[in-house]
Amino acid sequence: MSAPLLNQGHVPVLLDRVIAALAPQAGETIVDGTFGGGGYSAGLLDAADCCVLGIDRDPDAILRGADLADRYAGRLTVVEGRFSQLDTLFADHAGGGVDGVVFDLGVSSFQIDQPERGFSFRHDGPLDMRMGSHDASAADAVNTLSETQLTEIIGRLGEERRARSVARAIVAARREAPIARTGELADIVRGVVRKSPDGIDPATRTFQALRLWVNDELGELEMGLEAAEAVLHEGGRLVVVAFHSLEDRIVKRFLAERSGNVARPSRHMPEVVDPRAPTFRMIERKALRPSDAEIAVNPRARSARLRAAVRTSAPAWRVAA
To answer: Least buried of 103, 108, 120, 315, by fewest C-beta within 10 Å?
Structure first.
């Protein structure tokens, strides 16, 4: 498979800044925890004579990575798994520590563009949304969870203000027949949520919520950040690209906590100093955002936020605690 075909439909977001933050050097080993279309991995391998371990829970991504691994013979290994397990996966395939870890969060363009995967309301398909093959599907969620559970998921993970109305409409619809298609669910949501002034489809937040729930993406992120902390050498770089506030909030909080930059809840309360030494040093205090030029070329980059930090010599907190 040629390079253009490998990345067809997928443009790596903030690629130049990701490479700059990771600063790969000859002989280093870097983990691409969300291999996807292989864009970051290829960029790293082209930038330096380094080695990359690519991880993805999607079997399709592993198949896409096979030809890329052949092109960079001996320098790229692609394995199926969750990035929350990257410390175990890396130990199994290489051993030792690593010099860099990168996460590109969220759903990939490949997954969105395949109607049979059920991620998108723009193409009718089976209501699936599973990134891997061993989880409950979105259809399972909308057809079995209670109205209260659906309200909580859609409100918390989708930040949908009309979550209760959406949940009620879903429960009413499934009494008539199981909800099996993305088009069906999208129409149900559109029946109770008005189109926003910025033109965002009313189904967007509900679909986001279900995808996050089905794949436990926020839980995976929290565990993945801890796993990265555990495997990075002193001086190793952690780079995370997030696309919505829930993800970015977790990354921001983790790096602030691990770098000793957590603010006191109130200036009137005594400062509480964590006895554990900081495990990261922030490269930039604020998230980096894409330029107008990149957004023009790749609209998916619009909401991207990049945060990066450098590992210190302190023990990982989950080991030191």
So the answer is: 315
Over residues 184-241, the pLDDT tens digits come to: 999 999 999 988 877 788 999 999 999 999 999 999 999 999 999 999 999 999 999 9
CATH level 3 topology of 136-215: DNA polymerase; domain 1 (1.10.150)
Q: Tell me the C-alpha distance between 218 and 147, whole Å.
A: 22
Structure tokens at 303: 């909401």
Q: Which residue has the tokens 């967007």?
A: 204
Range 3-110+217-320: architecture per CATH: 3-Layer(aba) Sandwich (3.40)
Name the residue with tokens 């970051």.
40
Listed by start position, the domains of the chain span 3-110+217-320, 136-215
β-strand partners of 32: 54, 102
pLDDT of 121-150, one tens digit each? Answer: 778 899 988 887 677 899 999 999 999 999
